[in-house]
């Protein structure tokens, strides 16, 4: 290619689009870096078993950082006053939503539109006054709606339209006032089974206002409405089995107008508590249920009680009678004389002091009798000779003494409750006939001596409650007669002595509660637990078990309890530092949970857990531990939950070497941890929940990794992370850790990727620009560089010049050069000229030819013409010459 060949200057057709594409990619790169990634540290709530729990947080709005995978959302007891349309948009799999106890007065329409999976919604105790048209739009799968205790007056006729699957509606304690509003609700609910409209100030009930919309209703609560006329002229509740029509808030008699006795003839449970009607009306009410009634509640009746008992006991199917809050003082011999079919009688919450000895004589089928919350001072003789009695509840009376005949002949009794009385002592004979007793509740009395009551007679007893009494010692063989006992509650007594062999015979015992007594460590050393070979759970909290060295005990206290799963030994009121003997847990090969919280522990021996390979939960919080050996954890690789709150430990570094690959839950509140390193977290691959509340964090680059992890990881929930505070450096004290800017710290991979892609893109833009617009200038620069090299190479050689002059000219000027210039200079002057068409070496690169020619000539002569100036090659020749 000679000097002067015409070059193509048009831009490639695709060039502009290419440029736009690059700019777009560049912006995209920036955007993807800026968009925040939602993390797993929630601002106010926590997630537990896929339930978002935000209870009692003073929230004023629904939090938006709940992961969209949660299935239940509990927002109860907050201060939310308004539900916005977008509040629940992102929770498509939610099945349960609890908004109980807020200040909600407004719900934007469509707020629930995306909750198509929702099954239960609780809006109880809010301030709603009306239910607007599209309020519940979208809740097509809802089965349960609770909207009790609001101020609802108005209901739009279409507001319940979409809830076709609703089975339960509780709209009690509102102000509906008219049954037509109830109708406008339930007409859209073909599958409604339970309807609660208690206390809505309804004044009338006419069946024609309901039509036949309530075909599937089984449960209806109309109680506490001042209904003046209850009029049923059609069978509007053909499937009703549970009906509450009790209690009017006003002193006004309700008129009963049910034309056909078959209309309520399937009701089996009827509650007429506090109902004010004439005796004749109640009678005709009871007549309508004469063949179906099984359970009747007549609590807090104002009048006619004996007559009502008589008439209701004439219903042969009626077996359960509840008569609470009736201010009965005395039960006469005739009160229940007609109740021969009653099997369950509930006289709770009366003022009964005396019961006639033959008051229950007719109740020959009675199985359950409750006399709790009365004023009895002894076990009434009337309770004997009930041949089928299985449960007797005498709790919360004033019984102070139990006699040997009190439970005579109660051979069928399975459950006896005597708690909350003032019994001070038992005797050997009290329970002698209770051969079938399974559960005995004697808690909260003043029993200080068992007097051998449990040494015989109780072959079937499985649960014995003796907590909250005044026992001081457990004597040898005290529970010898309780071979079937499984649960024994002895907590909150004053026990300080456990005699040798005190648990003899309790071979089937699985749970023993001994917390809050005065047991000391020397009581354990005697092997008192050796008889409890089936024990699963032993609670010794809040006693005073304390050792002053960690050297091995001569006799390990739990060495025979190889089935024990849970052991708790925390203390509360017991001063002084302590240690745990290194063989304290010897024998507990199946221990799953060990709770040693708050025992003023100074150290833990590294061999402590060698005996408990199954351990899953370990709580050593609230101790003064300064140091933990990583070896402590090597025998307990199954650990799933670890509590190490409130210790004097300065870091979690002992976890890095502990190999706790199964640890899921870590609670380490209120420690002095300032930095949580990546190694610690990486060493816990199964961690799903970590609670680091109340630590004093360093707000610097040391925690940059932690910060990023809290926000970005999607496996581990970091409880309360948004409230973590800085403690160091001093100028950041009190600031929130998550507000810290870590940009300056993070030379992280992502950032490097970002920078390098950005640079690559920029570079390719520059290259493409240059290629399109400055291609030839680059070529010059390249050749200039070559010339420079050549120059330096030839400077030293001082080679003799081959030509006198090199002629640089444009091809178009060639005729002139050959015809005019050449004869003049070569012919007349005798110069040796170098001409490119004549003297350039064929095959050699043009550029080399040019440079060789120029360097081989003493002078360069340029034939300057317009064409010459236009030509790229020619201007290059000038450049090279210069
Ligand atoms: C509604 O519930 C049914 C049965 O529980 C389920 O199969 C269906 O997918 C649910 N619909 C929606 C939209 O979640
Ligand atoms: C009510 O009953 C009438 C006739 O008995 C029937 O035509 C109508 O479809 C029923 N309505 C409902 C909602 O079941
Ligand atoms: C119920 O029916 C029985 C006969 O089966 C009768 O003796 C009794 O008086 C009726 N009771 C009421 C409340 O109607
Ligand atoms: C216990 O039952 C027997 C026989 O059924 C009877 O003779 C005895 O009087 C009863 N004892 C008491 C205290 O009622
Ligand atoms: C102890 O428990 C086992 C299994 O629960 C049971 O088979 C056995 O009968 C019980 N022993 C007594 C004396 O109740
Ligand atoms: C942790 O596990 C590794 C290999 O699984 C083992 O080499 C190391 O000794 C273990 N460390 C402890 C403290 O058990
Ligand atoms: C969690 O993050 C990991 C890696 O960052 C990713 O592979 C995984 O898909 C994420 N899981 C979910 C449920 O987002």
TrEMBL record:
Q: How does it sit in the membrane?
A: Single-pass type I membrane protein
Q: Does the keyword Translocase apply?
A: no
Q: Which GO terms describe its biological process?
A: inflammatory response; innate immune response; toll-like receptor signaling pathway
In this chain the TIR domain maps to 801-882
Which domain of life does the UniProt lineage start with? Answer: Eukaryota
Please state the protein's primary subcellular location: membrane
Pfam families attached to this UniProt entry: LRR_8, TIR
Q: Which GO terms describe its molecular function?
A: transmembrane signaling receptor activity
Q: Which GO terms describe its cellular component?
A: plasma membrane
Residue ranges crossing the lipid bilayer per the database entry: 21-42, 751-774
Q: Which UniProt keywords apply?
A: Glycoprotein, Immunity, Inflammatory response, Innate immunity, Leucine-rich repeat, Membrane, Receptor, Repeat, Signal, Transmembrane, Transmembrane helix
Among InterPro entries, the record links this protein to: Cys-rich_flank_reg_C, Leu-rich_rpt, Leu-rich_rpt_typical-subtyp, LRR_dom_sf, TIR_dom, Toll-like_receptor, Toll_tir_struct_dom_sf
Where can this protein be found? Membrane
What is stated as this protein's family in its record?
Belongs to the Toll-like receptor family.
Q: What is this protein called?
A: Toll-like receptor 22
User: Per UniProt, what is the name of the gene that codes for the protein in this document?
Assistant: LOC108885101
């Amino acid at each position: 290619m000679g000097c002067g060949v015409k070059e193509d200057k048009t831009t490639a057709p695709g060039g502009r689009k290419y440029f736009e594409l690059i700019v777009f990619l560049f912006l995209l790169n920036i955007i993807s870096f800026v968009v925040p990634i939602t993390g797993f540290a929630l601002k106010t709530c926590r997630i537990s078993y896929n339930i978002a729990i935000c209870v009692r947080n003073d929230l004023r709005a629904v939090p938006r950082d709940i992961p969209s995978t949660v299935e239940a959302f509990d927002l109860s007891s907050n201060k939310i006053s308004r539900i916005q349309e977008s509040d629940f948009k992102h929770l498509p799999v939610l099945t349960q939503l609890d908004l109980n106890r807020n200040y909600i007065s407004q719900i934007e329409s469509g707020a629930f539109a995306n909750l198509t999976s929702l099954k239960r919604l609780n809006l109880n105790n809010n301030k709603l006054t009306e239910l607007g048209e599209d309020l519940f739009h979208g809740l097509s799968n809802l089965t349960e709606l609770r909207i009790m205790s609001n101020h609802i007056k108005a209901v739009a006729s279409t507001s319940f339209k979409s809830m076709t699957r609703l089975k339960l509606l509780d709209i009690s304690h509102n102000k509906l006032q008219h049954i037509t509003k109830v109708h406008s609700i339930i007409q859209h609910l073909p599958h409604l089974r339970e309807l609660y409209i208690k206390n809505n100030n309804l004044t009338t009930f006419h069946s024609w206002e309901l039509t036949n919309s309530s075909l599937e209703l089984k449960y209806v609560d109309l109680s506490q409405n001042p209904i003046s006329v209850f009029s049923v002229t059609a069978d509007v509740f053909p499937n009703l089995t549970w009906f509450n029509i009790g209690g009017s808030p006003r002193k006004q008699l309700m008129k009963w107008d049910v034309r056909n006795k078959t209309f309520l003839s399937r009701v089996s449970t009827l509650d007429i508590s506090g109902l004010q009607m004439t005796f004749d009306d109640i009678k005709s009410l009871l007549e309508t249920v004469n063949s179906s009634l099984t359970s009747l509640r007549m609590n807090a009746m104002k009048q006619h009680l004996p007559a009502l008992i008589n008439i209701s006991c004439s219903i042969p199917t009626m077996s359960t009678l509840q008569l609470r809050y009736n201010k009965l003082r005395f039960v006469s011999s005739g009160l229940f004389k007609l109740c021969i079919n009653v099997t369950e009688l509930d006289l709770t919450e009366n003022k009964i002091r005396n019961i006639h000895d033959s008051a229950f004589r007719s109740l020959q089928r009675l199985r359950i009798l409750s006399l709790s919350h009365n004023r009895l001072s002894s076990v009434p003789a009337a309770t004997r000779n009930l041949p089928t009695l299985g449960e007797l509840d005498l709790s919360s009376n004033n019984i102070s003494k139990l006699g040997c005949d009190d439970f005579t002949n109660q051979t069928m009794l399975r459950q006896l409750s005597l708690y909350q009385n003032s019994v001070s002592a038992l005797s050997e004979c009290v329970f002698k006939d209770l051969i079938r007793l399974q559960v005995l509740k004697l808690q909260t009395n003043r029993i200080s001596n068992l007097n051998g009551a449990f040494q015989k007679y109780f072959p079937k007893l499985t649960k014995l409650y003796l907590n909250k009494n005044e026992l001081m010692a457990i004597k040898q063989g005290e529970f010898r007669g309780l071979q079937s006992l499984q649960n024994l509650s002895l907590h909150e007594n004053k026990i300080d002595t456990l005699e040798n062999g005190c648990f003899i015979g309790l071979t089937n015992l699985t749970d023993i509660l001994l917390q809050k007594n005065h047991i000391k460590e020397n009581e354990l050393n005697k092997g008192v637990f050796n008889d409890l070979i089936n024990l699963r759970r032993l609670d010794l909290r809040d006693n005073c078990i304390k050792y002053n060295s960690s050297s091995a005990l001569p006799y390990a206290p739990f060495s025979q309890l190889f089935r024990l799963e849970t052991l708790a030994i925390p203390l509360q009121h017991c001063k002084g530092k302590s240690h745990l003997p290194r063989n304290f847990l010897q024998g507990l090969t199946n221990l799953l949970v060990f709770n040693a919280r708050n025992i003023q522990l100074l150290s833990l021996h590294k061999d402590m857990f060698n005996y408990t390979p199954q351990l899953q939960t370990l709580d050593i919080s609230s101790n003064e531990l300064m140091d933990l050996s990583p070896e402590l954890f090597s025998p307990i690789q199954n650990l799933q939950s670890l509590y190490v709150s409130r210790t004097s430990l300065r870091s979690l570094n002992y976890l890095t070497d502990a190999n706790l690959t199964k640890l899921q839950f870590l609670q380490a509140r209120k420690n002095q941890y300032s930095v949580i390193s990546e190694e610690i977290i990486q060493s816990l691959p199964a961690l799903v929940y970590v609670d680091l509340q109340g630590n004093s964090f360093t707000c610097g680059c040391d925690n940059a990794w932690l910060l990023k992890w809290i926000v970005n990881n999607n496996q581990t929930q970091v409880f309360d992370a948004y409230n973590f505070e800085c403690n160091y450096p001093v100028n950041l004290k009190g600031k929130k850790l998550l507000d810290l800017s870590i940009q300056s710290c993070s030379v992280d991979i992502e950032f490097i990727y970002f920078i390098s892609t950005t640079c690559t893109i920029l570079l390719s833009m520059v290259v493409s620009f240059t290629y399109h617009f400055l291609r030839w200038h680059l070529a010059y620069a390249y050749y200039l560089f070559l010339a420079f090299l050549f120059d330096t190479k030839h400077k030293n050689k001082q080679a003799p010049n081959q030509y006198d002059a090199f002629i640089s000219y444009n091809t178009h000027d060639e005729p002139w050069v050959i015809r005019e210039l050449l004869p003049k200079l070569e012919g007349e002057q005798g110069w040796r000229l170098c001409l490119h068409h004549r003297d350039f070496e064929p095959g050699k690169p043009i550029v080399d030819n040019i440079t060789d020619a120029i360097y081989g000539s003493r002078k360069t002569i340029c034939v300057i013409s317009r064409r010459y100036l236009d030509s790229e090659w020619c201007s290059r020749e000038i450049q090279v010459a210069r």
